Amino acid sequence: MNVNIQTVHFDADVKLKSYIEKKLSKLLQIHDRITKVDVYLKLDNVVHTIKDKVAEIKVHIPKYDFFVKHSSKSFEESFDEALDSVILQIKRKKEKLAA
C-alpha cells in the first residue's frame, strides 16, 4: 500500500504524519487489495480568523476509488472522522460484492 500525505498552505510535523500512517495501516485489515492512499490536509478559511482543518482521503482499490472529506478544529479529529467514513464505504462495497 502506497501512502501519500500532502499538505496545503502549511508543513505538517513528523508527529502528525506518523499518526496518520499508523492509522492508515489498519486499512489493510479491512481490504487487502488497497494499492494507494492519498491524504490531503488543508487549512480552510471559513471566517477571517477561524481556520478549520480539512482532511481528505482517497483510497484506490483496483476498479474502485473511495473519497471522503471532513473538517473540524484539529487535523487528528478531521482525519479520524474521514477515516471512519472511508472504512464504512469500503465495508459496504465489500458486502455488496460478496452478496
Task: Tell me, rounded to a whole number, the average pLDDT.
Answer: 91
| Overall number of domains | 1
Shape: globular
Please mark out the parts with pLDDT under 50 across 5 or more consecutive residues, or reply none.
none
**Strand segment tally:** 4
- Beta percentage is 35-45%
CATH topology: Double Stranded RNA Binding Domain
CATH-assigned homologous superfamily: Ribosome hibernation promotion factor-like
Supply the number of helical segments.
Answer: 3
- Please tell me how large the radius of gyration is: 14 Å
The span between the termini is 26 Å
Strand/helix succession: EHHEEEH
The first-level CATH class is given as: Alpha Beta
Provide the spatial order of strands within the biggest beta sheet: 1-2-3-4
**Largest beta-sheet details:** 4 strands, mixed
The helix content is 25-40%
- What class would the helix/strand composition place it in? alpha+beta
In CATH terms, what is the architecture? 2-Layer Sandwich
Outline the fold blueprint:
Elements (H helix, E strand, L loop, with lengths): L1 E7 L5 H11 L2 H4 L5 E10 L5 E11 L2 E9 L2 H24 L1
Parallel strand pairs: 1-2
Antiparallel strand pairs: 2-3, 3-4
Report on the structure:
The structure is a single chain. With 99 residues, the chain is α+β, with helices and mostly antiparallel strands. The protein has one domain (2-98): 2-Layer Sandwich (Double Stranded RNA Binding Domain), CATH 3.30.160. It is 39% helix and 37% strand. It is built from 3 helices and 4 strands, in the order βααβββα. It has helices spanning 14-24, 27-30, 75-98; strands at 2-8, 36-45, 51-61, 64-72. A 4-stranded mixed β-sheet has the order 1-2-3-4, with helices on one face. Helix 1 runs parallel beside helix 3. The longest helix has 24 residues, at 75-98. The radius of gyration is 14 Å and the shape is globular. 19% of the residues are buried. The mean pLDDT is 91.
